[in-house]
Amino acid sequence: MKKYIISLLICLSANVFSFAQTVSAPDSLMGATVLSKRTDAAMQKWRENRFGQFIHWGLYAVPGGQWKGKNYPTSAEWLKNDAGISAAEYAELVHQFNPQKYNPAEWARIAKNMGVKYVILTTKHHEGFCLWPSKFTDFSIASTPYKKDLLMPFVKAYQKEGIDVYFYYSILDWHNPDYRSVINNEEDQKAYERYFTYVKNQLKELITTYPDIKGLWFDGQWEASYKKNYKMGYELEQYCRALKPGIILNNRIRVDAQGHVDHDYKGRHFGDFDGSFERRLPSNVKTLDFDWEACMTVPENQWGYHKIWEGHVKTPYEIQEMLATCTSMGGNFVLNFGPQPDGTIRAYEQDLARNVGAWMKINSAAIYGCDNAGLDKQDWGYFTQKPGDDKLYMIVFNIPISKTLKLKLPEKTTIADNSLLTDSHKKFRIEKAYGNEYYLHLGDGKFAQPFVITLQLKKD
Ligand code: FHN
Hints:
Layout: H1 2-22, H2 41-49, E1 51-55, E2 66-67, E3 70-71, H3 79-82, H4 87-91, H5 104-114, E4 118-124, H6 151-160, E5 164-170, H7 186-209, E6 215-219, H8 224-228, H9 230-243, E7 248-249, E8 274-278, E9 292-296, H10 316-328, E10 332-337, H11 347-363, E11 381-384, E12 391-396, E13 404-408, E14 413-420, E15 429-432, E16 437-441, E17 451-459
Parallel strand pairs: 1-4, 1-10, 4-5, 5-6, 6-7, 8-9, 9-10
Antiparallel strand pairs: 2-3, 11-12, 12-17, 13-16, 14-17, 15-16
Helix pairs in contact: 5-6, 5-11, 7-9, 10-11
The chain binds ligand FHN.
């Protein structure tokens, strides 16, 4: 027993130390502090999750992108700004926010069936409205006809489905009278400092009231006021890490002394991962030596609920391909949902979740825990591999006319076996082309695309 306790203590201290090692003090320009991939279990879990859900929900869901009979095709959650609505007039929306059909268990079921392993919920977006009854403002759910906290039932429901919960928090705030976009004089600075205290109070409130959350996802860090007060970002980072050791923070928590956002003056991401891939994926990258996440909207640029979706709306196939792309490049993929003001999820988002989920149910082995496989990208799709595993996954999106898939293996590696992921009896003929290049012959079979082929590799 004594032996067991000693080895447990050694293990625990090694884990804490391995993370502590990666967080350093900032340099004089307030550069990044996590200089290599975190190796602790929490971050490893984040990495293995690979697929997440984003949820943008707030007062903006009520007008749904329309104001006084006019449609604003820009992002619904930016309506206050885009329609030039005064803070007082916008605040009246609290009396209309009454999500009687809010059923977080149903949301969590949809998310679970889609195959996500984590979720990020906007607790306070740029509009400043809080989804929880914050002690520090009246501009919260407590002032609505609904009154009840939206966060606790959310956290519980998602946790019940085994989905990790993260909270989004906007540093930018259009409602708090102390908030400043720019600091023009001492008064502004004083007000901004009061606002910063408000932010810290709220974050402490969130972290302590909902201790099961795994991390915080910051946004709105680009304004001149925050850049001028760049030391606040570092203070905030330390503050969150002290309140919740092991917490996972995205890169938008900080700016450096030269006003760089997302990445510091040396190009290194802030926080624990690079979350600056917004509505885009990194291009042409074989592998990245840092953790990263891409977040994506279903329509072109709507995060919050908008009554009218114009332009391109993504299909399940496109989402599956983005997820495969991110996994093959060692990153996470997060898909956004914008619930309706009554608390229900738009029918198209539900369909999309169902379809992506149906694909995930049979192919997720090629996603969860997988990473870049270190092979040259081929036009038919994406390679993924679990680190240290000798199984390689080929996620096929485009079948060539030749019905043969080219692949180039690392030196001194051969293919011991292969099969369709969904049918271990379905084998393919492999032909050695030249060097370490092979052709995999699909034959005449019909495949519901995208499909996954598993290759069992063998070292010579
Ligand atoms: O302005 C926001 C936007 O509304 C949305 O929340 C996205 C999500 O990454 N972030 C912002 C801009 O970067």
